[in-house]
Amino acid sequence: SYFNATRGKYQLLQLTQRVDDNQMPMIRIVDLRLEARKAKSLTIIGDKLHTAILARLEKREQTILFLNRRGFSTSLLCSACGEARDCPNCSVALTFHRTANRLSCHLCGHTATVPKKCPACGENALIYAGFGTEKVEATVQHLFPKAVVRRMDADSMTRKGAYRETLRSFRAGKIDILVGTQMIAKGLHFPNVTLVGIINADLALHMPDFRAGERTFQLLTQVAGRAGRGETPGEVFVQTFTPFSPSIQFARHHDFTGYFDQELEFRERCDFPPFRHAVLITVRSEHEARASFSAETIARRLREALPEEFIISSPTPAPLEKLQGHYRFHILMRGEAIMRLSRLVRETLDKLPLPEDVAAAVDVDPYSLL
Fold first, then answer.
1. How far apart are the C-alpha atoms of 136 and 49, rounded to whole Å?
2. Distance between CA 370 and CA 366 in Å, rounded?
3. Are the C-beta atoms of residues 185 and 223 closer than 8 Å to each other?
4. Is 112 exposed, middle or buried (0-12, 13-18, 19+ CB in 10 A)?
5. In terms of CB atoms within 10 Å, which end of the chain has fewer, N or C?
6. What is d(CA 167, CA 304) in angstroms, rounded to the nearest whole number?
7. Residues 6+ apart with CB under 8 A from 82
8. For range 225-246, the mean pLDDT
């Protein structure tokens, strides 16, 4: 959108300052590599963020802690044989939810009981790896026992009216620390929130998608905007293992134009939007071999039909290879003449009958490549 605005296709309207002329929050980057060396373990709340939260509690100011990942632990592993408890329908590990004492898949909804021993080798050597908002809440409550801590995510907001009730309590100052996912990232105005802590800024940054950096920049900017909306200046702590990432550094300085310029250079060098349009074909089937063969066949026919001006990738398993019981393969095409490309793709697929248990979906200028 901003690219089109710079080219005159859209009219650009800019907000150059915050409401009531409040200053933007100070964003501080915390290098989790250094924190891990000091603690000799995975750090959830680093020393600097811990000190900042204590200071806010003493001054009766409020804190928001953000992590875009639900659950208590992100996987259940066997330390003896290395086996992980995976979802039978999707190519992801099951997430452990301590409150429900269940393993859950956040993609298809599959649930399973928590085994006492490893189902693969029978050893009593199961360990919980990774963390989500549920574990962050428990950790924060342990570190600050006198503080009132609440969590806002899809798991804790299931009861009718729970969302509004929690926000009402937070606005009234009855909650000191609010832990949450993207649910608390934007659209909330709490003047007494002077500190925002981003527990791990790297979650979306390393996704196999050319827009991963852009989404990270957007999310950091949105979450940081929750701090310092009143008279007291705000402060944001961004915990990350990649502190020199452009997404993080430009967000730190509230420099959208700078980020746009460097991201545009990367997109142009790699022939990605907005310089070329993209068309993504997703071939899926419950049978992996049939999905793979159909994707190869479609790709071969497309190479025969498309002129050399269009770039077509070889069919590959999707980053999320299995989803809701279906194996998925991607074919990505890029080109400038999107109407012509779309027409040629449609004509090619219309002439190619697929097996009954194989489906092909076409996404023009896809928002996600997962």
1. 13
2. 10
3. yes
4. middle
5. N
6. 57
7. none
8. 88
Whole-angstrom Cα distance, residue 316 to residue 296?
9
What does the chain come to in residues? 370
Helix axis angle, 133-143 relative to 47-58, nearest 10°?
Answer: 60
What integer pLDDT is reported at residue 187 of this predicted model?
A: 72
Helical ranges in 86-132 per DSSP H: none
Q: Which domains does the chain have, with CATH numbers?
A: 19-67+152-268 (3.40.50.300), 277-364 (3.30.70.600)
The dihedral built from the CA positions of residue 247, 250, 255 and 257, taken in this order, carries a sign that is: negative
Question: Is the pLDDT at 55 greater than 90, yes or no?
Answer: yes
176-219 residue pLDDT tens: 999 999 888 777 788 888 999 999 999 888 888 889 999 999 98
Is the full-model pTM beyond 0.85?
yes
Paired tokens of 32: 């989790």
Q: Which structure tokens are listed for 246?
A: 């452009």
Alpha helices in the chain (DSSP H): 2-6, 32-39, 47-58, 133-143, 162-171, 212-224, 246-252, 256-269, 288-305, 338-350
pLDDT of residue 186: 72
Q: Which two tokens stand for residue 315?
A: 């069919």
Question: H/E element holding 327?
Answer: strand 326-335
